[in-house]
Amino acid sequence: MPRSMTGFGKATCELNGDVVTAELSAVNHRYLDCSVKLPLAWQALESVVKQTVRAHISRGKIYVVISRKRSGTSNTRVQLDTELAKRYVEASRQLGQLMGGSFETLSIDVLAQLEGVFVAEENEEDLETIGEGVAELLKEGLNKLDSMRCTEGKALEDDLCARVAAMRVTLATIEERLPQLNELYEKRLRLRIDELKDSIGIAEDRIAMEVALLADKSDVTEEVVRLKTHFDHMLELFGSKDAVGRQLDFLSQEMLREVNTLGVKTRDADVAKDVIRMKSELEKIREQIQNIE
User: How many of the other CB atoms lie within 10 Å of CB of 263?
Assistant: First the structure.
């Protein structure tokens, strides 16, 4: 079953006492392009995230956001830089003396807000262990993303199958008209030759040869057979477990080529209408295929 390239997945777990969340969103893209946003301390895990995504998805623009909510038992430590605080206090006293008056030194509230007085530090984390946890969390999120992509892919498959069925019906209508067209072409050619043969002296065997050549040039049997084969192939691809978006795109181009050739060879008003109808369906098919992985 084909998968859509659009979807969303979210998973949450507890990791080292913190609540970690992975959010994944996917949109259409010609190739696989993964954008990752991680907590600052986990930037080194970007390659782990991308590798995990590549193992599950082959095509699409994937946005991955990993966030964590600190628990009360966070590894963050707050350090007081005593020496720097003393220098701030001493500097404030000197400023008071410079102003020639009696000024109070810095209050604790003001001092605490000065840069460098308090420094937040984090204990070093085991990124290898965290990476394993993040990878498992990502797999859960990717499974949810995949479930949504499969649901949308089934809707796309149903729509595409209906359009292929409509093209089959139109092609069958053209096939029914072909014998009449061959007779019509021969009559037109013979009528035109009859108007000219007395003046230019064309032999009957030459006329028969020209009729046969015209019939061969106008024959669309190959195009009809190839179109039917393409229809069958497209339906087979819908049943594949692999990513088939590129194959479907190529196949739709081949189908369009056959339909165009069929229209050029037949040169019939009724067939032209059917060809336009088929091209319209093909255009919609090609638009839908752009959403398939």
Answer: 20
Q: In angstroms, rounded to a whole number, what is the distance separating the alpha carbons of residues 202 and 108?
A: 116
Q: Are the beta carbons of 47 and 16 closer than 8 angstroms?
A: no
Q: At residue 130, does pLDDT exceed 70?
A: yes
> Considering only CA atoms, which of 131, 96, 121, 170 is closest in space to residue 22?
131
Q: What is the mean pLDDT of the chain?
A: 85
Rounded to a whole number, what is the distance in angstroms from the first to the last CA of the chain?
11
Nearest to 138 by CA among 271, 236, 205, 38: 38
Q: In what order do the strands lie in the sheet with 7-15?
A: 7-15, 18-27, 60-69, 32-37
What Cα–Cα distance (Å) separates residue 82 from each residue in 76, 121, 222, 259? 19, 16, 89, 82
Convert the pLDDT of each residue in 81-120 to its tens digit: 888 888 888 888 887 777 776 666 678 888 888 888 887 6
Which range of 96-105, 127-136, 176-185 scores highest in mean pLDDT? It is 127-136
- 283 to each of 236, 259, 270, 274, how far by Cα in Å? 20, 12, 20, 14
- Residue 13: how many CB atoms within 10 A of its CB? 15
Dist. CA 166–CA 169, nearest whole Å: 5
What's the rounded Cα separation, in Å, for the pair 25 and 125? Answer: 28
> Distance between CA atoms of 26 and 63, rounded to whole angstroms?
6
